[in-house]
Amino acid sequence: MENPLQNISPREYQQKILETCKDKSCLVILPTGIGKTLISLMLAIERMKKFPSEKILFLAPTRPLAEQHLNYFKKHLPELYATMELFTGKTEAKKREELWQNADVILSTPQCIGNDVKNNLYDLSNVSLLIQDECHRCLKNYAYTYVAKKYKEQAKNPLLFGLTASPGYEKAKIKQICDNLGIEAVEIRTRESEDVKEYLQELKFEIVKLDFPSEFNDIRVLLKKIHDKKVLELQNRKLLFMPPTKKFLLECQHKIMRAISAGNKNFNLLLGASACAQAIKVQYALELLETQTLSSLSSYMQDLFQQASQKKSKAVQHLVASQEFNQAYVKMQELIAKKVEHPKLAKLKEIVSAELKQNPKMKAIVFAQFRDTLLKINKTMNEIPNINARIFVGQAKKENEKGEVTGLSQKEQREIINEFSLGKINILCASQIGEEGLDIIEVSNVIFYEPVPSEIRTIQRRGRTARLMKGSLIILMTKATRDEAYYWAAFNKEKKMKKAISDIQAEFDDKEAAKEENKENQKKLI
Question: Are 163 and 133 in contact (CB under 8 A)?
Answer without folding.
Answer: yes
